[in-house]
Amino acid sequence: MMVRLNQLRGNLVYLLIATSICLFCAAEARRSTLAKNKGKVCKSEKCRSVAKRIANNMDPNENPCEDFYNYACGGWIKRHEIPKGKDEYSAIVELSERNDKRLKHLLKLQSSTDTITIKKLKDFYKSCLNTKIVDSRAEKPLTEFIKKLGSWDMFSDFDVEKWDFNKTLQLFHKEYPAEIFFTVDVDVDPKNRTMNIVTIDQAKLCLPQIVYYVNKEAKRELGKYAAAIAQHTGVPYKRAMKKMKEVVMFETKLAKISVPKKAKKYARTPIRSLIGAIPTFPWLEHIRYVLSPRNITEKDYIVVLCNEYLADLIQLINSTPKRILSNYMMWRMVKDMVPFLSKDFTDAYKSFKEKLTGKGQRKTREETCYRYTDEILGPLVGGLFIRREFTVEDKKEVEEMMQLIIKAFEKNSESVPWISNQTIIAVKQKADAAVVKVGYPDYLFNDTVFNERYEEIEIHPEKFFENVVSIDKFSNRRTFRKLDQPVDPHQWVSVPHMANAFYVVTKNEIVIPAGILQPPFFYGEPIPRSVSYGAVGHVLGHELTHGFDTLGRKFNLYGELIQRRTKWSDPSIANFENRTQCLVNQFNDYKIGKDLHIDGKNTLGENIADGGGLKIAFEAYETWVREHGEEYTLPDLDLTNEQLFFVGYAQKECHNSTHQALVDSIKEDVHAPSMFRIIGTLSNTEAFSKAFKCKLGAPMNPEKKCHVW
Ligand SMILES: [Zn+2]
User: Fold this and answer.
1) Ligand 1: distance of its center to the CA of 501 in Å?
2) Least confident window among 18-32, 135-149, 323-337
3) Is 141 contained in some domain?
4) One domain, residues 512 and 407
5) 374, 606, 610, 631: the active-site residue
6) Which tens digits make up the pLDDT trace of 109-124?
7) Second label for 280, Cα 20 to 30 Å away, from 205, 371, 642, 648?
8) What's the CA-to-centroid distance between 566 and ligand 1, angstroms?
């Protein structure tokens, strides 16, 4: 698929800080209701139901000082089977599925309070669900699309003499996020990270990786698939097969000159240097057209892929017949649009995908449409989610929590025994400078800004294909308008409804989307805050601590990689390394079965973040209690709030895996399996042993403990 509105979806399980917003008003109001709750139990229905859920997830027969993971998660593990076709299931996946389910329901719901943009979103979803109309329109939207773009040699009425290569490529690059030969993009300027710059890069190929082009079978399947799609637009079988064979042969030549991702090198250079290096392509004219109305000159700087690729590419293009070029270029446009057509097309698409990646479970239309909507209109889906599933109060509450956690981190940095005064100053400055984004970007919640931002998108409830085209064009225009503009500080690395959290090491930024600010990570009133501080509080602390782990410490307060000039003193760096070795050894000792050991080194960054995060989240909770008074506890659980804090911490991590998934995760994942994250971190935490009165020497309270932060 092309580069769409939301190209930022990741697959990270919470990774890596904050503006200071003072929320005294909210805090004051609560103080009066909560201050006199010491020893009291919350009896409300909501408290009862949350307490019941917590109890069901626990295994009451397990001793918390022996194996806290099974104590907190034993019930959850028993009740949650791994779904068919999957090899693991976890509390965070359960939350993610619940968010998806809510959204599918909300997308279908027509409401009189919907803003124009939310209406567009719902109409888009509707246009996808209505297969009756999609199927009745058959190939028509596609053939119209092809003709508007200047047609191709696949059609018998095509006049190759009238077709202009340069003009066609200019049009495709200007109007669509087209991956053809090379891409023209506007992205962050590496020399000045606050500004944007034009970037020229190698385009992707049809098959997922360069190596596929030495696989005859994969290429044959690609040719057959491309021909089948052309046939569905009315091209006779023989003609389609012959011409698509040429297309695949041409793409094989492209694959031969392509540079693997890891070997790519970039240069920041004026356009005239690119013209000087490769004079056989009209670079200035091309970039000028694509970026018009902005006037581009030879003196303008661009970032360009500086391997041999572009020179080889232009040579290849200049030695290829125009009819093949026309077919290749249009096929690349068509290929991206196939999923949005009638059943004939989507069936061919699905079976080609299955041949490449193996047979998975086929999705229902509802699921497929939800995925497309999420992928193509992610921020709008987020806009809907925050209006229905999140509140401004929740956002404020978490921002307050984050401030207490940053303060706790700074205070803690003064008391860790291995750190010099000079280093403390550097650490505090960085924690202070961290940018914290909670819930959603503000523009999504402000109806006026939200509507203005997506005004140009045209959505028709019965024209699914054209809707995608409209969004694609809008997405491209928006990208190009970024040129000469400062990098948008409100840009998020994630959509708001994502159940995940991030530390962006290159920006010193913590992002906590609304999607993770749901049970069992976060509970609003009247649930005691102990549970949320243990769960999402730990996530916040974890992300903050990433700024000070083995990788994060090499970046300064602006997120710039400056290696040894981070103002840390040499003795502090040496002590830090020493302390981390303790954690490496501790996790190296954990194993699955007889001899499958956890990789302490590979998981070190995450284990540092877990340990530091838990310590400061607990300290932040203690500060909150000091400022607001004791909270009431949950009913029927017989757990103090300190204990609830640790149960909340562990229960957000409950996880079920097949043995094979565990084996794979040990090889590939930078996170240790959940049971070791919980056991390893808690057995280093004094406050935990105190809360559960674990004797020194008990499995969860060993004499030797590892502390970095
Ligand atoms: Zn992490």
Assistant:
1) 9
2) 18-32
3) no
4) yes
5) 610
6) 999 999 999 999 999 9
7) 205
8) 21
The residue that leads in pLDDT, 243 or 569, is 243
Gap from CA of 608 to ligand 1 centroid (Å): 9
Residue 62 CA to ligand 1 centre (angstroms): 28
Bond from prior residue into 526 cis (ω within 30 degrees of 0): yes
Same domain? 79 vs 179: no
User: Does residue 36 have a pLDDT over 60?
Assistant: no
pLDDT exceeding 70 applies to what percent of the chain?
A: 94
**Three-class SS of residue 113?**
coil
Active-site residue flag, 686: no
Q: Considering the chain, what is the average pLDDT of its residues?
A: 91
Identify whether residues 538 and 612 lie together within a single domain.
Answer: yes
Same domain (yes/no): 649, 562 = yes
Distance of CA 553 from the midpoint of ligand 1 (Å): 14
Could you tell me the CATH number of the domain that includes residue 197? 1.10.1380.10
| Tokens, residue 668 | 């590939």
- Averaged over 366-387, what is the pLDDT? 96
- Are the C-beta atoms of residues 126 and 114 closer than 8 Å to each other? no
Which residue segment(s) compose the domain that 214 sits in? 156-360
Q: How many angstroms is it from 388 CA to the middle of ligand 1?
A: 29
Same domain, 397 and 355: no
**Smallest Cα–Cα separation from 483: which of 173, 184, 182?**
184
Cα(609) to ligand 1 centroid in Å equals 6
* Average pLDDT value for residue range 475-498: 90
- pLDDT greater than 60 at residue 578: yes
Cα-to-centroid distance, 336 and ligand 1 (Å)? 34
- Asked if 543 is an active-site residue, the reply is yes
Going along 357-472, which residue ranges are E strands? 435-439
Q: Are residues 195 and 85 in the same domain?
A: no
Least confident of 12-16, 379-383, 444-448: 12-16
Query: Ligand 1 centre and the CA of 499: distance in Å?
Result: 14
Map 416-428 to HEC letters.
CCCCCHHHHHHHH
- pLDDT at residue 10, rounded to an integer: 29
Q: Which H/E stretch holds residue 269?
A: strand 266-270
* Total domains present in the chain: 2
Regarding whether 669 and 534 lie in a shared domain, the answer is yes
Q: Which one of 300, 336, 543, 642 is the catalytic residue?
A: 543
**703 lies in some domain:** no
| pLDDT tens sequence across 221-240 | 999 999 999 999 999 999 99
Instruction: List the Cα angle 280/283/285 in 5-degree steps.
Output: 115
Q: What is the CATH number of the domain that holds 637?
A: 3.40.390.10
3-state secondary structure 485-554: CECCCCCCCCCCCCCCCEEECCCCEEEEEHHHCCCCCCCCCCCCHHHHHHHHHHHHHHHHHHCCCCCHHH
Residue 533 belongs to some domain of the structure: yes
pLDDT in tens, 164-184: 999 999 999 999 999 999 999
The whole-number pLDDT of residue 603 equals 95
pLDDT of 662 > 70? The answer is yes
Residue 700 falls inside a structural domain:
no
